[in-house]
User: Fold these one by one.
Assistant:
Number 1:
Amino acid sequence: MQTRKILLSEDEMPRQWYNILADIKMNPPLGPDGKPVNPEALAAVFPMNLIEQEVSTERWIDIPEEVLKVYSIWRPSPLVRALSLEKALDTPAKIYFKNESLSPPGSHKPNTAVPQAYYNKVFGIKKITTETGAGQWGSALSFACAQYGIECKVFMVRISFDQKPYRKSMMAVWGGNCIASPSNETKAGRDALEKDPNTPGSLGIAISEAIEAAISDETGQTRYSLGSVLNHVLMHQTVIGLEAKKQLEKVGEYPDVIIGCAGGGSNFSGLSLPFVYDKLNGKQIDIYPVEPSACPTITRAPFVYDHGDTAGYTPLLPMHSLGHGFVPAPIHAGGLRYHGMAPIVSQLVSEGIMEAKAVTQLEAYKAGIIVARTEGIIPAPETNHALACVIDEAKKAKEEGKEKVILFNWSGHGLLDLAAYDNYFSGKMKDFILTDEEMLKSEEIFANYPKPALLKNR
Amino acid sequence: MQTRKILLSEDEMPRQWYNILADIKMNPPLGPDGKPVNPEALAAVFPMNLIEQEVSTERWIDIPEEVLKVYSIWRPSPLVRALSLEKALDTPAKIYFKNESLSPPGSHKPNTAVPQAYYNKVFGIKKITTETGAGQWGSALSFACAQYGIECKVFMVRISFDQKPYRKSMMAVWGGNCIASPSNETKAGRDALEKDPNTPGSLGIAISEAIEAAISDETGQTRYSLGSVLNHVLMHQTVIGLEAKKQLEKVGEYPDVIIGCAGGGSNFSGLSLPFVYDKLNGKQIDIYPVEPSACPTITRAPFVYDHGDTAGYTPLLPMHSLGHGFVPAPIHAGGLRYHGMAPIVSQLVSEGIMEAKAVTQLEAYKAGIIVARTEGIIPAPETNHALACVIDEAKKAKEEGKEKVILFNWSGHGLLDLAAYDNYFSGKMKDFILTDEEMLKSEEIFANYPKPALLKNR
């Protein structure tokens, strides 16, 4: 019988994260004055130990023992050979995936939620605030905070709060306090409610509320936490790719193609960055971040300086962006509805080290159902986007008659997103593709913004 | 760092199930004439290869290669040392659990759904019918049928069909066809609808519909499948306990106490029966099936002959039963709302080889939340009943100052049952405990039924 899962013991778990900032040049974030941001300026928002990680250029950062202990609840995650999918597609390609859906919150998000909660704890912080859209991040942070006995407060975009009540319930089981945003608890929230008492809310408002709730705590014991985009978040996720490398080594394989869905960029980077290191050192690998056609940042939007949030509270980040005022169409993959993209991914795409792909929602779900009926696991809406690209690549390998090794990240399961599958089966699911006119509009926004410099990382 | 998960490789997966009928005497099932049922009488309902397993007295039955291949999607399941829970309870007990929540449908159910689908396939069957209450079994069978390319038709009790729409969505993703029962597709369904067009349905009616749909297919290519209670179902589940034994051996441990929740008895038996074998051969182990106080079959109901279904279509089975007309209170643990108990468990309890426990719904959820916040995984409502007993035993070990080894089965996750946790947190969750008067009523039912003989298995 062919082995399906390549396992690592807990002893084999990576003891360090990989920090790609040691190996590539990046444009710095800019403050309101147009000058590079001083780390101290962020001290009211993040604990200093995480700010240090954000700007570190050390290649390897130790994973603390107390983080490893919590990781061991679900890590190392299995590397799975998708034998049944290969058979169904009759492809000569060997398809492997990291199964990140096995964590208690059901996604890759706790890979960073756990260390973030830990470093806040060590820094003496008693309470963490955050925002959440569809709820994956809010539940992962609630889970992590329960492990270290920290309070967790989640501002959840009202429309999701109302439409996805079970994410809120998950947070409650872990002791997280989830409230609808805009709320009456912050000035940002009250302002938004005054403007429109029936507003569905937005990620931008929720971020504003969470930051305000953190910095306005007079005890100084509250900080804010972000689930994607930032350098240290991507670095925590590299545990995925580092494990995958060890696992592939065990079976004597190395990937020709690496695929992951990309919203803010964290799960994709987690898998791919340790292999980008190899590519920078001469390895030939095709690396594909896959985004939804409804929110095409790296396939169509310009590489610019833009704010990470809608309200413009964050520094300007060098990234592919549709504009911080851009509101993506209501696709089910809430985790891919972000106007920008992690600066690291943006930089690597702009230099051609990674090649961005976009798929439509219908293509994504069609792929997801094929994979659910073969590999068994029901994929998250976000993961479905990666799967559409995986199936394309497997078919291409068949046409070319090549025994390629394809590696992808199964970012999460879809057990809390089953309504989206109903939507697909009912024939009511829509595709959303941005028109050229809409794209031009987003380019105009950036006419007066500073431009990232051209850098050469290979 | 202390190891949390004891893993087995796929090579170490058990190659045989353990059949306890080789080691204990049982009362036979009785037909309408009061005589032991002839296996051939069941041929229209089940495929003959499964009927042979049901009555086999071979101790070891080979697990087919094609079943092992599908098992390998999630098996072997990890044996987890509940380090965080031990710490929170400050107990000298060592607590281990088999994590059966990692299967794609999220419970232990596919351990038998997969071989049942396989044996039907081998027997030339094209379509399987079944009933489901809360939906765990229907989704597990849909998953299994997708693996072998068999059609799956699930009759789901209407009230659950309406209240738990996402179980139906899961089945659809795997290609299962789930309809509300009573339906217009069977005579049993039409009769029920004629009697009461607004009936919420019942497991009894759904079983009747599923059996009728199977036996009335004139091509002879449809059979019916049951997810618990029967001997072959419990035998398939023994893969849990056989793995657990190997895993405990690896760390040089043997359980003093074994705990599992028990509705029909299959997850509990899956873990415990391989250890019952040891107990029959002289080992000292306390073995506790835990049921809800709202449906106290093995703690309070008599050991009798009763029908497995409400309508009385099945043979008379020797079991602890509240009467086949008994309608349990609407507790959230749908999988524990069964009027009877597997004959094997009933027999072993009646002889004192296992000692039944009952806990209330509120006790169960209180325990579930403690465990979710320590071990991380959100437990299924059914699992919460086992957890209440685990915590009791761990506290008892502390009082006695004994370093006991406690082993329990984590039968499933609660990600599709989060509304129940909301109900708990809102303070609206109710306890249901049967009065003595209600119990007496159920004893009266059996006045004219045949009685199981006294047997001595130790």
Number 2:
Amino acid sequence: MSTLNAAFIGLGTMGYPMAGHLAEAGIAMTVYNRTAQRAQQWTRDYPGSHAPSPADAARHADLVFICVGDDNDLRQVTLGDDGVMQTLAKGAVLVDHTTASAEVARELDAASRKQGSHFLDAPVSGGQQGAQNGQLSIMCGGDEATYQRVLPTLQHYGKAINLMGPAGSGQLTKMVNQICVAGLVEGLAEGLAFALNAGLDANKVFETISQGAAGSWQMVNRHQTMIDDQYEHGFAVDWMRKDLDICLREAVRNGTPLPITEQINDFYREIQSMGGGRWDTSSLLRRLQKIPT
Amino acid sequence: MSTLNAAFIGLGTMGYPMAGHLAEAGIAMTVYNRTAQRAQQWTRDYPGSHAPSPADAARHADLVFICVGDDNDLRQVTLGDDGVMQTLAKGAVLVDHTTASAEVARELDAASRKQGSHFLDAPVSGGQQGAQNGQLSIMCGGDEATYQRVLPTLQHYGKAINLMGPAGSGQLTKMVNQICVAGLVEGLAEGLAFALNAGLDANKVFETISQGAAGSWQMVNRHQTMIDDQYEHGFAVDWMRKDLDICLREAVRNGTPLPITEQINDFYREIQSMGGGRWDTSSLLRRLQKIPT
């Protein structure tokens, strides 16, 4: 079996360790990052080379992975002048790990097909820690054959990997996740604000209720940092704002009323204007605590 | 050791099996229920006798348990003409399992002390099934000595039993629970409404995301019935309305803004006017699905 050639575009908090796992698995890697110094650093940490553009990185790749910021970044590194589509080989697969719109996923699927290659949208969850430990959840959209072909490679950094349906379905699933998180975290924030104002021992409260009907991953993993007013970790409000904007646009398209999600997106906008764009999403509590009563 | 005498006031969905567990444990039971036929039925199912009034039930009791509907019912069976306080013996303990206000808990604590007896507020969670299986969570408020004295008896139907602080603290903890549930269930409902409108396989979506940051007891235990549009089970909207009204009044008192909880209470009011007072709280999805878009 000949060595697999892969490109990885976007060496951010997530992409950097993800590309690293592929390199460590013996895949011949070519990486690209907008800030070239970071790509150079990556080649000092891992075996592989870096390319001056997405097109150059993708030129000889069997698999091209992307993990960038948003729809605009994604269109630029794929459909732009120096983008991946300029060189993506016939039969190659483009795998997009960006949390983006379902629309751009369908666009890239169509563009890939047009040149005889394949596309998979594959947003992840599990955060920086999941990327470092190789324990990400990966929600895929695309056809079965493409999914099966890429699956063994995804397993180098993914744990729960699922094909959700045709192109765009990975993104739609990630949106469901973010909608559920928004209501959940606000409920937790209101509950904790109440517990503190009521003079309860908040730790004891959550020990007591976290096994029952109010229990959640967020309650188990965030109540302590919320009690400690610590938000310099986790999933940043700026990213949540981006994701919720995507959800709300798609909800208009598919006719879903999201009254509370919409309002929580506004709460996150307030947190941004409080200077909290980099705070964890659980900082909804800090916002509540600033409201004059 | 002489036999423990206990009274149980209120043989509803929860109280009926709870009193049954005490009878089966060998405690000499006297029960009271507003609808006398139900008390008569209870004495056919379990060893024990029934009394014509709360005062009569409590007359010779070491421990008096109450599990009724709301603050008004509770005041009536305790402070009313035929209420427990008429006969509650010096040294006896009054244990209230009603989900009620912290205010009425403090009132009953004061009234109990005045006649040399003791009080514990002890709202439960775990539902009808928890009451039947003896697996309830019990959140207690009161003093340590009273709690330790009652604990072995509570263990006949409770699993996770905790003393949360002074009188009223059990109720306040239950309120935190209900506030967390409200936001959580609306988030889940909005996520599921979106998933269905997006054409996703909703079962597969929840299998995929329930282990991560969006995961919750509600997601695991309610997604299937929500997908099936089944709400004839679980915790009724009428009861949730009552509980959230209590939360919102207490939040005004302790200065906690609960913007989303307040709005979800309004959503539940809408469900009541749709005829859904007996539906499970997860019927927030059905409300979303009725909104014209």
